[in-house]
Request: fold
Amino acid sequence: MKTNTWTRIVLSLALATLLVWAPACSEKPATPATGSKSLAPDTSAKPAPAPAPDTSAKPAPAPDTSAVPVVAPASAEEAMKKLAARIKVPAVAVPKLAKAPEIDGVMDAAYSKATPVTLKFITGGDTKPAAATTAWVVSTDKELFFFVKCETPDMDDLTANVRDHDGQVWDDDCVELFIDPTNERGMDGYMHLMINSLGTTAEAKGPAGSEDFSWDPKLRVKTAKDKKAWTVELAIPFADMVANPAKINKAWAVNINRMAYLLEGAEDTAWSPTETTSSHVPDKFGLLWLEAGTVENVK
Reply:
């Protein structure tokens, strides 16, 4: 009886113990509450962005070139004026035409592009001649053209007698052209052409007193007259003036002269006065600057 009683007590305690521990062992681990921190590393977080480059900084300033002067290339007109000032003669630009003017002794639109030049007494001074003379010069790639208007108060008594080629045209009222295509201005390096109102011409090379009249360029000449003036229009091929027509100098030494025989006496005039009684002074010839020129011969 006594044994059974202790047995029942022991069994009751064991059963009570099982009843206490069984529910605890069957429970699942507690799930962390939302928002609580996990002990494992959080791999869902994005890496911190790299800092953006600073674009507010201003670019480095460009090098300062203000101290270096910019020199524009000299224009043809500037080059012409500079040369003329150095040699102390008048100068004029000769425009190049696409089409040659008709040689008829009558002024036409082709010469409107040229700057007219007027003649003064050959010895210089400001006195105006009674027989005014004005000239225009143009060119093409092939020829050089002169148009000269010779006014006179004595048209009814115009001196015009010489009809023979290479005759003494200078004894008539005439236009004289002195041409040095090299602009070297030597005494033996220029050509001399004379034309009277009849259209008679004389052409020579070399200085006065030793001219070579064997030079015969293929001129095209025409003269005309009205009540107050006579005109001459002349075309000279470049091929008769330069060795190679494909190489034409820009700067030419040229003078345009006129001998006018008036009732009151003779007037010897020139575009560029030689300041002597002689026309044969190449250092005093004017300067033509040819647009058709292909060779820079300015020294």
Q: What stands out?
A: The CA atoms of residues 29 and 147 lie 123 Å apart. The longest helix spans residues 2-26. Residues 87-98+117-290 form a domain with the Immunoglobulin-like fold (CATH 2.60.40.1190). The chain is about 10% helix and 25% strand.
